[in-house]
Amino acid sequence: MLRQGGHQLRASAARALSTTAPAPAAHFTLTPRLKDGSREARRLRKQGLLPGILYGEGVNGDASRVLVSMNQVDFEREYRKLRTSMGNQVYEVTTGDGGPATKVLLRDATLHPVTDIPQSVNFLRYKPGRKVHIPLDFLNQEGSPGLKRGGYINNVYHEIPCTIASEVIPAKLYVDVNGMHVGERIYLENITFPEHVTPLVKPESVVATIAGKRGLIQKPEEEVVEVVEEAAVEDDDDDDEPIF
Name one GO cellular component term (predicted). Predict the structure, then answer.
């Protein structure tokens, strides 16, 4: 989750990755620190470092909270490239103490409200089964009659909460809106999930609709029934001359 001035940022589809299997994530080096507080955070930022916290279960399975700092340029380079898709990347970090690398997720990051420069970053130790939020991407919008006529996609869910059974987290979940008209709904069961991804939303849940003015709603085509009238055959026996 990326926050700006305390609010969550949502990137448009164009700003996020469009690959189902993302490229190997970057490696970060975290440096443990002893002091906490705003004064210490300002001191670190002046040195080109980002203050942060490493959360989650430690090597022995116990909950831990480690104060850390990291190079601001390294994080900013990754953030400018991936934006909110950083939340769906599994990173390897080392803490500079000679221990083994740790797999982590980006827990949250705070951005400056004016300059958009990262101010702090927190990580969460990753293990299969953790809950993640995967954004939706709508494909073939040019093939939707409802969107072409002035309709729009009304998201009920911008992201789908899921559990992941591996270290490969999809950058996006894709929804095909080709042929859809205003008034039609998109259900979770219309989305194809990878085998290792389990959604935490009911299959019958509506994730989005094709919305628009009432006049854009497609009316059901009236069935045209062709009526064939049989020509009436009149008996003109009175006009016929007798044979005998």
Answer: cytosolic large ribosomal subunit
Whole-number pLDDT of residue 215? 61
Give the domain CATH number at 116: 2.40.240.10
In tens, the pLDDT along 216-242 reads 666 555 444 454 555 444 555 555 554
Question: Tens digit of pLDDT for each residue in 7-26?
Answer: 333 333 322 333 344 455 67
Per residue in 126-156, pLDDT (tens digit) is 888 888 889 999 999 999 999 998 899 999 9
Domain count, the chain: 2
Inform me whether the pLDDT recorded for 71 exceeds 80: yes
The CA distances from residue 144 to 28, 157, 182, 235, in Å, are 43, 20, 9, 59
32: in domain:
yes
Domain that holds residue 185: 131-212
pTM of the predicted protein model: 0.63
Cα 53 from Cα 55, distance rounded (Å):
6
Among residues 104, 127, 150, the one where a domain terminates is 127
